[in-house]
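G., the chain you wanted modeled:
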Amino acid sequence: MFNYYFIIFLKYQSGFLILKMSIEKQAINESLLQSYRSIFISSQSIFLALGGLLLNKSNFLTLILALICLLQIWWIWFGVVYSRAKIVDFYKYSIGEKHNISEHDYVSITARRRFINRTIGIKTFRTTRIKIDIILPILYSVMWMGLAIFEYCND
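Predicted structure as tokens:
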């Protein structure tokens, strides 16, 4: 009889520990996601100010800066932030424990992630994420393209 209660207590304890670890990992990854967003927004703002200062002074440098910043937005910003957002969801909704899938598989196997998200009823792009992770980088891209076109036309 003692062993039976001891096993139940251990199962409860291990479930509690898994839940606690999941909450801690979710908090860490949410913090990383916010940090990545801050870094990208700050760097784009600084580069945009630099691009404005270079306007009509050096066509070549302005166009190179615009190209580098567009690559940063479309290749790095979208990739890093979107992947980290998926990892946040993985831990936020305890997907690993509920659906027996690893973090790596959840992030990389699109069909399985979409199925799990539909089952749980979550959207990867919620209202805040749409504004910060999609609309803002697109606005920066439009500003960079406008700056490059203006610089090219004033040649």
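Residues 2-153 form one domain.

Shout if anything looks off.
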